[in-house]
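S.,

Sequence below, as promised.
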Amino acid sequence: MNAERPLAGQVALITGASRGIGLAIARRLGEMGARLGLCARDAEQLAHAEAELRRSGCETLALAADVTRTAEVGALVQHVNETLGEVDILVNNAGVGLFAPLYELREEDWDRVMDTNLKGVYLCSRAVAPQMIRRRRGHIINISSLAGKNAFAGGGVYCASKWGLQGLTACLAEDLRGYGIRVSAVCPGTVATEFSPHAGKDPKKMLQPEDVAHVVAMLVTQAAQSFVSEVELRPTQKP
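The prediction came back faster than expected:
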């Protein structure tokens, strides 16, 4: 293993990679030598992210796709396989947050959150698992949240999606560990991004996207005989 580029020769597919946590993870894995497949729904913003990463020397392929749609996920993985190679690392980062009392949520709000935060992870993981099983190696990292462990007012659908993701991650880990594939959940607290409002909180005291990227880098460079199933990540000071 190249100490400076420990992921050289590996392919990493990151969803929700056009900004925030996803872009920070892509940047970090690219610096470590991985060839990057980027996915997001916003094609224009994704193109900006791709250009930034290429300027920094990362081999990058970006494809706009909706992770809630089976055909688009299949086309994404096929394109990455044909252009960069088979996926060694999948980071399921795409997510949405809607925060309101449950009785005020519309059915389409519920569906949007659950489909993106939970069904999208299922579809992307299902798409790459067979090739990882065949090669008997790989990492699947799901970006969850401390909201998957803690309830709060207005968090009904978001917490439900992340609690579900915790269960899905744990079961997928059991399904795949016998093939040498490691499945982990990263559960950050409040991160300073545009993802959700942070009224009254000091962004300098929040977690930064790079903090989450650091954890992902740690997970994909573990020794082969073990895996970390879950990481809870909190800021040193409460915002």
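The longest strand covers residues 181-188.

Coffee later?
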